Amino acid sequence: MAQAKESVSCNLEAMTPEERERYNEVKGKINASKNHVSELPNGYLFTLKAEKDMIQNVGEFLSYEKSCCPFFEFAVNIREETLTFSITGPEDAKEIIKGVFSL
User: Domains plus CATH for the chain?
Assistant: First the structure.
């Protein structure tokens, strides 16, 4: 029996207009601060400096992203001065991540 393909449609109504505005603000801060982006087989790994404000921005961003795109999987790692986070998902999710971060 063939396995059903996981849906990768985002729910753009999951955030209020105020949340969407804040989401765009923290996403912009992350985009401006990223040191490196690595392509993974099913997503991307982002590397940033592990500053207090950036750690908070990444956590807030991921909580918003999870509300509209529940098919994504997230992993965060903080070691010394480096913060990395990955966003991965099913086959078509990679294109969505590229769009979110203009990769």
Answer: 17-101 (3.30.1360)
